Amino acid sequence: MTVTLHALSFAAHDPRRLARFWTGLLGPEMDADTGFRLSFVPSDEPKTRQNQMHFDLTSESLEDQERTVARALELGGRHIDVGQRPEEKHVVLADPEGNEFCVIGPGNDFLADCGFVGAVSCDGSQEVGYFWSEALGWPLVWDQDQETAIRSPHGGPKITWGGPPFTPKTGPNRLRFILNGTAAEAERLVALGATRLGARDGLVEMADPDGNEFSFVIRETAA
What dihedral do alpha carbons 208, 212, 215, 220 form, nearest 10°? Predict the structure, then answer.
C-alpha cells in the first residue's frame, strides 16, 4: 500500500461559490486529468497573505489564454498584481476569495505535456521537494538551483517548489494537500521529516518539513 494524493483542499468562506468557480473553470472531471480532486472546507479565517501554493494553467495559443482569462473573469475572478513583470507571458488572477493562480502563455516547454492544469506551484525549499517525492513515490523531474519538481508516474500536473526567498508564514495555509494511506505510512512520513499536529477519527493532521500543513486520512488495511 502506498500514500495517495487524494485532494487539494481550499479553506473557503463560501465553499459552494468557490466550488462553482473552480468547476466552471477546470471542468467537472478535473480529478480525471490530475489524479486528485478539489475539496472546499468552511473557514472563517481571513486571507492575510499570498498563498503558499497556486495553480499554473496552460494555454495552446494566445487566443486560448485569452479565453481562459475571460472565462475566469466571467465566473467571478479578477486580475491581481503580485509583482509580475510586463514581459512575462502569464496572467495572474485570483478566484472570488482571492486565491491566486496563473494562466501561462503558449510555448512553455516545462509544462508542455502536463494538461490544462500544468502545475501546482509551491513556495518551498529543495528539501521539501525531496520530502514530497519520497512521501508520494513520485520521481523528481526537476532539481536545479534549489528549485524542485515532482510528477506522478501516471502523468498529470507537476508539483513544483521554487526555492528561496520564501514568503513568511504567518498562519495556517489556506490550501493544503489531503493524503490517504495506512497508519504505517503515516509513521513513515514522520520518519521522513513530517510533524504530527493532532489526530481524530482516523484523520491525522501533519506538517511537512517546511511547516506546511496537510491532512492524512488513515486507510484500513485489508484483512
Answer: -10
pLDDT at 223: 43
Question: From CA 161, how far away is CA 169, in angstroms rounded?
Answer: 15
CA distance 124 to 222: 36
Tell me what pLDDT residue 221 has: 67
- Nearest CA among 132, 135, 123, 203 for reference residue 169: 123
Domains along the chain with CATH numbers: 4-218 (3.10.180.10)
Question: Confidence class of residue 208 from pLDDT cuts 50, 70 and 90?
Answer: very high
Q: Which three cell numbers stand for residue 57?
A: 494553467
Which residues have a Cβ under 8 Å from the Cβ of 202 and sit 6 or more positions away? 217, 218
pLDDT of residue 120: 98
Measured torsion, CA atoms of residues 113, 115, 117, 121, in degrees rounded to the nearest 10: -10
